[in-house]
C-alpha cells in the first residue's frame, strides 16, 4: 500500500487553529475564552486551558457563565512537555484547547532557545536540534483532534543587521518565525482587544472577523465553527483515532503498535487502511530516532574525550615525572641573558652618583 490516500477533494469538517499575539495585558486570554465559548456551542466544560502563565488564567474564571477546565503548566517549558499537555487535554475530551502562553515553548525556561544553547557550543547555538523539537510540537497541535487557540506574547523588535541604520520592526510575536502562518487565522491584537491586525486570513473567513475593529466574542467563535461544520460531516470517533495514530508515529513503530492496541475493536475495521499508511511514517521516524541517538552518543563520547584530554594535560603539567620540560634554543637563551645584563647595567648606572648630569641642580628649590 502507498503512503497516500488520493481521492477527489471535498470540503469536510475539520478543525481550526487560531493564534492571538499581543503584549501582556491586552486581553488575549479574555478574547480566547470568548471565542472558545462560541466554538463549543456555549459549553465551558469542553474548553481546556494549558496555563503557562503562573495560573493567571484563573483570573479570567468568571468570564464564562460556568467553569472551564484548567491546568497549571510549570517549567521546564520544553516542546516535549507541551506535547504531553496537549495529549492529556485530548484524552480528557476537550473540544477547544487554549494554550497560554505558547511563547514559553520558544524562549521560556527549557524552551527552544535553551535547547539550542545546551545542545550547542560556547561559540554557536544548535538551532538544528532546537527546531527539530519545535517541528514535533507543531505537528502535535496541527494533528490533534481539538480546535486550538494559541496565545502568544509580543514585543517591539529591531533590525540590527546594519548597526548604522537600525530599523524598528514594530510589535512581533514571540515565537518561531513561521508559526503565525501555520494557523487557520492569526492576528496581532491592540487596544485591549478592540483592534486586530490579521497576519493570515482566508478569504472565506474575512466576513466573519470583519475589518479588524471591534471586540471578538462568542459570535465570531460560533460563526467560525459553523463554517467548518458546513462541509461534509466526518466520523468524529474515527477522526480522533486517526489523529492519535498519526501522532504516535513520531515515536516510531513500537509507539504505533501500542496505540493500535488501544483502538476500540468496533473502529479497527474503519481504521485498517489508515493504520497501514501510518506504518511507513513510523518506519521513517524509526530511522530518524536511530540517527539522533547515534549523534547524541557521538557527542557524549566527544565531550568525554575532551574532558579526559584536559585532565591529562593538567596532570602532565603539575605532577612529577609527567611535567613537560621547557626547551629553549641556545640563540634565544643568549638573547635573554644579554637583555637581562643590559637591564642590570642601566639600573647600576642610575644608582651610580658619578653618572649624574654635572649640570643638573641637585638641590632644586620648590618654594
Description:
The chain is α/β, with parallel strands linked by helices and about 375 residues long. It folds into 2 domains: about 15-160 and about 170-230, P-loop containing nucleotide triphosphate hydrolases (Rossmann fold, 3-Layer(aba) Sandwich), CATH 3.40.50; about 235-300, no CATH class. It has 11 helices and 8 strands. Strands 1, 2, 3, 4, 5, 6, 7 and 8 form an 8-stranded mixed beta sheet that branches. The N and C termini lie far apart (about 110 Å).
Tell me the CATH superfamily of the largest domain: P-loop containing nucleotide triphosphate hydrolases
User: Could you name the ranges where pLDDT drops below 50 across 5 or more consecutive residues?
Assistant: 318-324, 354-367
Number of helices, where a helix is a run of at least 4 consecutive DSSP H or I residues? 11
Question: H/E order of the elements?
Answer: EHEEHEHHHEEEEHHHHHH
Rg from Cα: 33 Å
Strand content: 5-15%
